[in-house]
Design brief:
Oligomer: single chain
Distance between the termini: 11 Å
Largest sheet: none
Number of strands: 0
Order of helices and strands: HHHHHHH
Structural class: mainly alpha
Number of helices: 7
């Protein structure tokens, strides 16, 4: 019975450390999706000359998960015919999806700033704004990847160490 209990405790500790590691990976993937989304939005604005709701609706079809869902809701609200302010819609939808997006406060600020000038400026100014936001997000992505690499070993060893320590205390 003690051996079975020990194995379960160790498996639970290792499983929890794996969960934390997957959470870090999801955060990194969401940042990558945002960067890719900004690139695609830039292309749609510059080359296809689409209206903002059409460009955002195209992003919804391309990106699945939290990022695509937010873009789809923004596009739906803009396309429903009620004249809404894009900045307010952008802010409200990202606030509603904050938990699913797992962004830090700095990353949220960058994303919210992205929506601030969309749809109001000429194409060149919007392109410059999107490029600046992309560069800032690229820096945050590099930080997230460094943090993930540093924490990968830490989570693995810490999960095992805590499991062994709990087993020793219980036995």
């Amino acid at each position: 019975m003690k051996i079975l209990g020990s194995m379960l405790v160790l498996a639970a500790c290792i499983g929890y450390s794996s969960y934390l590691l997957e959470k870090q990976k999801s955060h990194r993937d969401i940042l990558q999706a945002f960067i890719s989304m900004l690139d695609l939005l830039s292309g749609k604005l510059r080359y296809e000359r689409l209206a903002m709701e059409e460009a955002l609706a195209g992003l919804n079809r391309r990106y699945h998960g939290a990022v695509g869902s937010v873009m789809g809701r923004i596009a739906d609200r803009l396309a429903c015919g009620v004249c809404e302010n894009l900045e307010e819609v952008w802010r409200e939808e990202f606030a509603a999806a904050a938990k699913a997006l797992m962004l830090t406060e700095e990353e949220k600020d960058i994303i919210l700033e992205t929506g601030k000038n969309l749809g109001y400026l000429d194409v060149d100014a919007q392109m410059g704004h999107l490029k600046l936001c992309r560069e800032r997000l690229q820096g945050k992505l590099a930080e997230a990847e460094t943090e993930l690499a540093e924490r990968r070993k830490l989570y693995r060893y810490l999960g095992m160490a805590v499991g062994v320590m709990v087993i020793l205390i219980l036995i």
